[in-house]
Amino acid sequence: MRIALVAHDNKKQEMINFTVAYEPILKKHELFATGTTGQKIMDASGLNIYRFQSGPLGGDQQIGALIAQNEMDLVLFFRDPLTAQAHEPDISALIRLCDVYQIPVATNVASGELFIRAMERGDFNWRTIIREREGQSS
What we know:
EC 4.2.3.3, alpha/beta, MGS-like_dom, 7 helices, Methylglyoxal synthase, MGS-like_dom_sf, about 15% strand
């Protein structure tokens, strides 16, 4: 599966802790992240991550483009609901694309853990079938 990892500044440590805790599961998948978040995760966990630009510089939109092309299967976006974000329209667009293209999106650790456990059980295998039907490999 292709998984995007995104975290606002005040949630980066939560994302790092999450990815370290679930490293044995995550290392079996293709991981993508916005710039700073991806670097911090790689430094802490050793996971191999393809990094896009930082969110405010277009990273959210780069992930959104993959969603629109049906090339992303899950988004873990640990959002900070208490801090205004300068690039809020990009964030809203990313979440809207997840809804439009039926991509599961977790916005906090609790939902992230549910999705990771479901993925581990094989509950997301339907994403592979959809990509194969559209001629895209995983």
